[in-house]
From TrEMBL:
Belongs to the YkuD family. Keywords: Cell shape, Cell wall biogenesis/degradation, Glycosyltransferase, Hydrolase, Peptidoglycan synthesis, Signal, Transferase. This is L,D-transpeptidase. The keyword Coiled coil does not apply. Pathway: Cell wall biogenesis; peptidoglycan biosynthesis. The active site is at 178 (proton donor/acceptor), 194 (nucleophile). InterPro entries: LD-transpeptidase, LD_TPept_cat_dom, Transpep_catalytic_dom. Transmembrane segments: none annotated. It comes from Ollibium composti.
Length: 226
């Protein structure tokens, strides 16, 4: 039956669509059967071939179904168009209004654990360039030094197909919400990066959100800002 998410009485999210996926039982010696993915989600996350670079379909069997994109009920004071990043639970919400939100699963890197509070999406980019931070270059000069002038867009670029850039009081926080081809990282905490989404999801978010939109980033035990 549906589960609900409650954060200090502010957010209640109930999936509009359940994952609908089951795993076959297995004996001690039988190989584990792959989950069958409903056609609805296979269509949602199908490969995309009309972009400047091909975007493969993710392996949805590597991702917990609760992290698939879905519209949910949402009760809170934030205005429609706002984004709420629930870092501990690996969810990102885009408020749609009328008590609804679009919920996406995310992966969290070290940089994604370093910012909390409120900012705005200063700008957004399709197939962005990526430049390692000075700290990254200093820490691993052989790896990141050659990329000091930036990395061209493409399938191997860490920012994926789309990126949203978060500023606070006019200053770049270096916090990014961006795409990834590493489907296994959704729902997990990984070694580096900010907030990563499946490319299909970040493209959906990109179409819906506007520059200047408010972003509230929650860390462990942090209440949502009013």
């Amino acid at each position: 039956m549906p589960t609900s998410l409650t954060r200090r009485g502010f957010v209640i999210a109930v999936p509009l669509l359940l994952g609908g996926c089951v795993s076959a039982g297995r004996s001690a010696t039988a190989p584990k059967a792959k989950r069958e993915i409903p056609q609805y989600y296979r269509d949602m996350y199908a490969a995309i071939d009309d972009e400047p670079f091909p975007i493969p379909a993710p392996d949805l069997t590597k991702i917990d179904p609760k992290y698939y994109r879905q519209e949910v009920a949402y009760n809170g004071p934030e205005t429609p168009g706002s984004v709420v990043v629930d870092t501990p639970n690996r969810f990102l919400y885009l408020l749609l209004g009328e008590g609804r939100a679009m919920r996406y699963g995310v992966g969290v890197g070290k940089a994604g654990l370093e910012f909390e509070g409120t900012g705005v999406i200063q700008y957004k980019r399709e197939w962005p360039r990526w430049t390692p931070t000075q700290d990254m270059i200093a820490r691993e000069p052989e790896r990141y030094g050659p990329l000091a002038q930036g990395m061209e867009p493409g399938p191997t670029n860490p920012l994926g197909a789309r990126a949203l850039y978060l500023f606070k009081n006019g200053v770049d926080t270096l916090y990014r919400i961006h795409g990834t081809n590493e489907d296994w990282s959704i729902g997990r905490s990984i070694s580096s990066g900010c907030i990563r989404m499946l490319n299909q999801d970040v493209m959906d978010l990109y179409r819906r959100v506007r520059p200047g939109s408010r972003v509230i980033v929650l860390q462990q035990d942090t209440p949502l800002a009013a």
